[in-house]
Specification:
Layout: E1 5-7, E2 31-36, E3 48-50, E4 56-63, E5 68-73, E6 78-84, E7 87-91, E8 98-102, E9 107-110, E10 116-120, E11 126-133, E12 142-143, H1 145-152, E13 156-158, E14 164-166, H2 185-188, H3 196-203, E15 204-205, H4 207-213, E16 219-223, E17 228-229, E18 234-240, E19 245-249, E20 255-261, E21 264-268, E22 271-275, E23 280-283, E24 289-293, E25 300-306
Amino acid sequence: MTAPQIVRYGELIPCKTAFIDAHTPGSDQKENFTIIGGGVSESPDQHVHIATPHGFNIGAAGQPPRCRNSLHSHRTAEVFFVLSGRWRFFWGRWGDAGEVVLEKGDIFNIPTGIFRGFENIGEDYGMIMAILGGDDAGGGVIWAPQVIEDAKDHGLVLGENGKLYDTKKGQALPDGVAPMPLLTDEQLKAYPEPTTAEVVPGYVARYWDMVALADRAPVEVIGADGILRDRPGFEVYLVTRGSATEDRHRHDRPSVLMPVTGHWRVEWDGGADVLAPGDTMSVPADLDHAAWPSMTGEAALYQVVGTDDPAGATWRG
């Protein structure tokens, strides 16, 4: 039986040239991490820690204070939870339609089909963990037109093949590859501009509210019956000290464990290990396992399991 794979927080390999805004002032200190699956990086320098398909991708963004991720959209789900720092998420064509501030442990199932960005507004380096729907994460990133235009002034050009070319390094678009076309005014009409009041109630879950709900049993955060009702091709659960158990269980597909707080002992047939916040564990399908806090104090972790639902647009039912 295959053992779980662990990617330790301290062993994450960043890519600082992952996206088209990598040279744009205000966004040029971002670090992108691709932990499980190919992700949506546009750079050949991106390191993939675990390439095994799970039906979803796991990644992360690390940013110093006042560093911003530019406005973009995805065709499948993009779910973030805050591992460290204080983050402002904003959305809309120009990023001014609405916003929300998230703290450690908070989770945001960003609606598909809207432009979104985020910035670290804390005082220290912060990290947010990301879950992207589908094995191919929707085929890449859709950038707001101004992001592509701004990037040209700083040497980066995105080809229609989804790859970046750095003119400061003497790179140019290959023969037969045109620049990524800008969305037209007509195409931009398909991207809605929901307000904060329209987005936050159905798409944001606060950590301490979830901890209270998970006092006796794991709480379904994202799923058909979740706090945030959605079917993006995966389900997300929050497990706390009160709802953890040493009883082993299994899933018929790979699952992922990501601690937010505390240290967690994970045991499976043939082995055991301890996870800390920022670590990511991929548990193989059909492996009996259990996880529970190994030390006193606050302890919570997110569990992600794929489903048979298509990794399409945000669902409401």
